[in-house]
Amino acid sequence: MSQSNPVSRPTSADQAYHVEHEWEPDGKGGYAHATTIFLTASECPIGCSMCDLWQNTLTVPTPPGAIVRQIKTVLDEPLDHDRQWIKLYNSGNFFDPRSIPPADYAAIAKLCEPFQRVVVENHPHIGGDRMLRFNDMLDAQLEIAVGLETVQPRWLDRLGKRMTRDSFDQFAQGLIDHHIDLRVFLIVGVPGISTNESARWTRSSVRHAVLAGARHISLIPARQGHGWNGQADQLPQCSDQELRDLLNAAIHDANGYATVTLDTWGRDPT
């Protein structure tokens, strides 16, 4: 399990709103030290119904140079561990020019030189050409994290993801073609379904993500937050044991082709 819990607070374009230093499975039987920077940037334009990360975003386009300053401030702090991986999460889409100014790509890539892997989040329909341009600037392995959430078509539509399974698959294949790794976020549960049905569709989504070439799959239990079109009180309440069982089943389903982890935001794991 991994745990991070960025909290809502007044945002400044000159300061990342949260930083995590954590050990993450490297997919080879070991662990890599990951520095995760939750960047303060412009709000995501997609507007998924369950998302509460808009609380930590700017209401205006991110000023040029701000993201570079945020990253540099974090990396200037001393660490007890070697810098191996860096995750740059901006509560939206890294290749949305309102969020991460393309003019800053070169400076960001320069700051990422000490790292072996750079992970950013992005929607399949945003900034494909910019993604390839940034990838060309990196010495590290680029990994794109995509919120697929579920392969249940009706739920995917209700979440307001503005993508289909087919468009996700096409994007995943494009990443493979350009030697870019794929990380997938899957949500566990939507309003009005049982915990058993949540587990069944999550496992189907894991298998789909594996076939699409995902290197890492992160299971995220649905939390109330802000959204769900007023139906947050209908979310299934998975117990810790049910989540452990689901994680073990998902690891079995991945069959070694992808790393599977469970995120525990807002929970007190025991």
From TrEMBL:
InterPro entries: rSAM_sf. It comes from the Bacteria. This is Elp3/MiaA/NifB-like radical SAM core domain-containing protein. It comes from Rubripirellula amarantea.
